[in-house]
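ok so for the tutorial part 2 we go from a plain amino acid sequence to predicted structure tokens. step 1 is just haveing the sequence, like this:
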Amino acid sequence: MTLTWGVAGAVMFGALLHASWNALVKSSADKALDTAVIHLIGSLITVPLVFLVGLPARESWPYIACSVTIHIGYYVALTGAYKHGDLGLTYPLMRGTAPLLVALSASLTLGETLAPLAWAGVLGISCGVLALGLSRHAVDSPRAVAFALANAVVIAIYTVVDALGARASGNPLQYVVLLFALDGWPFALMVFLRRRGAVVWPYARKRWPVATIGAVASLGSYGIALWAMTRAPVAMVAALRETSVLFAAVLGAWFLKERFDARRVAGTAAIVAGVMALRMS
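step 2 — the prediction. this is what the tokens look like for a chain of 281 residues:
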């Protein structure tokens, strides 16, 4: 398996989609409810697609069940991070630490070993991502940092699980469609039962057009990533996917009026260098 420019370009487009739906969540008044609505709509969209594309191989079903469970923890940590910290702080922390964990675990679970230049690329991207997020503001937001770092571990776990599942499925599209059809319900029901209908339905009616955009972006982003993981080493794809932080930083500066200073410029340069190292390895 090699990382071609075609696969790299697709993953980076998926990274833009991922940053976009995260920016939508961060810009909302109710992070947990917005996350629940986005992923419930994602499930509703993909239910008919299951009948259209068919079911993945049975060998992948245990991975889907495991991933659905893990994603509940992901959504809980995600909303906690965005509740207590800026997008520009929490998003890089979540996404910057995960590729290193994936790279370390992929050699054990997937039998993939990276060349020295590829390791340099993973480290470059991770360090650049962390440079975009780490600041003195992190000291002032310990709960946001705790949620973000906990979510990095969750991200690394479900990345490896879904990579194994997508490869076992024989068809990454079938895998991701069934995953999304099941994935949105548990967390959404948890949030809806806690908030009750008097709060949920008016909010959902108001936000559903934006939430639908977020749901499509989330589905497209992860679908591209899982497809790429069947054609290139998982650690490389996981690291390259975190170029989404660049897009998140730009979106945060543009729409949410968050700062884009010299530190973030340096982080951007490190990420670009890491991408080049991955492609050249």
